[in-house]
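Much of our argument rests on the idea that a fold can be written as discrete symbols. Part of our work consisted of pairing the sequence of a single chain with a tokenised description of its backbone. No coordinates are needed to read the tokens, only the vocabulary itself. The record that follows shows the chain in one-letter code together with its fold in token form.
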Amino acid sequence: MSSNFVSIILVNFNGEDVLVDCLSSLEKFVPKHNSEIIVVDNNSQDNSINIIESKFPDIRLIKLPQNLGFGAGNNAGAKEAKGNFLFLLNTDTIVTNNFLPHLLELMSSNSDVGIIGPKLVFPDGKFQVSFSPEISFTGEIKAKKMHKNSYDENKLYLIEKDFQSIKVVDIVVGAAFFIRKDLFDLLGGFDERFFMYFEESDLCKRVRDLGYQVLYTPHVSIIHLRGHSVKKSADKMSLEYRRSQIYYYHKHCQSWEILCLKIYLLFKFLYEYLKSPNFYNLEIIKLVFVYK
């Protein structure tokens, strides 16, 4: 087996409407001699399993007995992976070229690099923000401003212009995430207490704490539909987002930042609940008080 063998891992949950395009693109553009594709299914209740088994028999399929979440799903795939490198990829993506040579060359020639995130674009080719400042109370304000600016075409152009070369960043999103297998194993993979959201931010933080860099590269790009799984259950995902956010702050942030976050969440979702009573808003308010 090549020392540059890559295990491409996809975690699927009820993704029948995106799986075919994603897996077909991988089989078309990514050579099999130095890669494998592993799909971890989180107990999908749609036709996902049948699609994979009938249309993609060469792809390794791992069936989990229940939905364990994004991080745990990737961890399950990593345990079975044969590669020296892992490429963690969302199922709502489409590749249009063989992105591996650039990622392998960039990682192999920079021993201090632990994670690389490629450029992500929307189906129409528009630039997608796929990096973030470090998670903190002030960092999230910066990230929120950047994402708000991304909806303004002129401001989005300026962001893209600033990221036309390889850059060291704090975080790259988990939709397309290249990491050394030995480093992933050393860190114990994703923290499975994050069911969804913040797990890649946590892993990037722990990688940086070991002295490795996280890179963003614009020299290969992948189409990302973005939000496929979230759209199906927005309220539930909003609750998971806040649960993971609070856990991340308790794990990595200072006490004053935790307090500021809880005050912000309390007032924001109390106002939302009073304006329009909603079970999930109430559950988020409860999280502020019960999370230790």
Notes: The first strand starts at residue 6 and ends at 12. DSSP finds twelve helices and twelve strands in the chain. The chain has a mean pLDDT of 93.
